[in-house]
Amino acid sequence: MPWQPKIPAQFVRPLVKNLRAVLERDAPASLAWAGAPIQLSNFAWFGTAQHVEPRFPFCLVLADTSDVEGSDDGAYINETHNIAILIGVNGNDPDRLADELFIRVNAVDSIIREAKWPDLLEGVPVANYGPCVLEAGRHNYAQFQRRNANQQYEHIAELSIKISYFETVRGII
Amino acid sequence: MSSGIMPFVAPPGGRDASKVMIGPGWLYLSATIPATGQPPTITAPIPPNTPPAVTGATLVGYTKDGSKFSSGFTLTPIEADESKAPLWQQVNVETVTIDGTLMQLFDPAVIESFLPNMVMSTTTTPAGTLYTVGGLVNVPTANLPSVLLIGQPRPPNDAKYVSAMIYSAMNVDAFVFNLTRKAAAETTFKFEAQPVSSRPLGDQLGQVFYLT
């Protein structure tokens, strides 16, 4: 008999990919709203991993940890995915960077709260996942600040979000 | 006598891991009630991790923490002035229950059995299922289903199973759905056995069956 999973779970993979796509799609409109009347440029780089030489400004969706627990009746897997979103800006004026970071964090947070489940879980059959809960949590503006020899500053903020739902197979419990 | 290592032979009644039970269990409503002296009819052997087909039954679906069967009774001691100990103990009330927490609340075919004092009807405009409550004198028979719990005590790949059944069950827990943003609605249930007087004494509430 060919191997097959009891529950065809996909865990955090579709979430990270889809959330990145949602942020890229909605960022221009959200930045325009959050920064008005200041018109900020769009993020130059949307990614799902950190690079040694990032392109600024960036918005990264990084999987942090996933808490996974099988249900007591064996029917589904309860999942809580902790995801970190890093937002980075650079320039030669730290005061302007601080304000820009506030705007960009607001824009990203607003996109996440407005995100629709069919978008976030695209690729996961609707019948395979249970009710979803999204918690947009801490904003950490002091994540990473530094200056290089050319008097260029980098400011990075981190948003912590938590997405919970269960994955299952309909009918087979 | 050889000098080899003596094989270990467990004495009767000794420690035996094969007699330990573990879930998950599957909960069914309205399974066909077996004749006295018979277990429920399961139409196919139990493959690993898959609920078996049971004649006439509806599989309940997701539960939060599995389901629990219990059977107990109360005793009334009969006393006399001349004796400090009771002369005998009278079995007073026998109670058989199956309880748990139901997750699939949006399922009219199942929910009806959890609402003993409600009357269900279907509507066409708009199409839906309507439950009304208040003033009912007799509980509808449809609201007193049989309840059957089946589990594999020794996973995996073991066709053995254990079943516990209530022939006529009334949910005595309040029906609740709590609509919040952070957690799925759920309701606890406690099916309590109602006596089936047409069955012989000693078999009017329910049964437990071990496939050997």
Which key features would you list for this structure?
heterodimer; A: 173 residues; alpha+beta; Alpha-Beta Plaits; five-stranded mixed β-sheet; 3 helices; elongated; B: 212 residues; mainly beta; five-stranded antiparallel β-sheet; 1 helix; 2% helix; globular
What's the short story on this structure?
The complex is a heterodimer of chains A (173) and B (212). By secondary structure, chain A is α+β, with helices and mostly antiparallel strands. Helix content of chain A is 28%, strand content 36%.
Structure, explained:
The complex is a heterodimer of chains A (173) and B (212). By secondary structure, chain A is α+β, with helices and mostly antiparallel strands. Chain A has one domain: Alpha-Beta Plaits, CATH 3.30.70. Chain A is 28% helix and 36% strand. Chain A has helices spanning 13-35, 94-114, 117-120; strands spanning 45-47, 58-70, 76-91, 133-147, 153-168. In chain A, α1 packs across α2 (94-114). The longest helix of chain A has 23 residues, at 13-35. By secondary structure, chain B is an all-beta fold. Chain B has one domain. Chain B has one helix and eleven strands. The interface between A and B is medium-sized, with 14 and 19 residues.
What are the SSEs and their pairings?
The complex is a heterodimer of chains A (173) and B (212).
Chain A (H helix, E strand, L loop, with lengths): L12 H23 L9 E3 L10 E13 L5 E16 L2 H21 L2 H4 L12 E15 L5 E16 L5
Parallel strand pairs in A: 1-2
Antiparallel strand pairs in A: 2-3, 3-5, 4-5
Helix pairs in contact in A: 1-2
Chain B lengths: L24 E5 L28 E2 L3 E16 L9 E15 L5 H4 L6 E7 L2 E7 L13 E5 L10 E5 L2 E3 L15 E7 L12 E5 L2
Antiparallel strand pairs in B: 1-2, 1-7, 3-4, 4-10, 5-6, 7-8, 8-11, 9-10
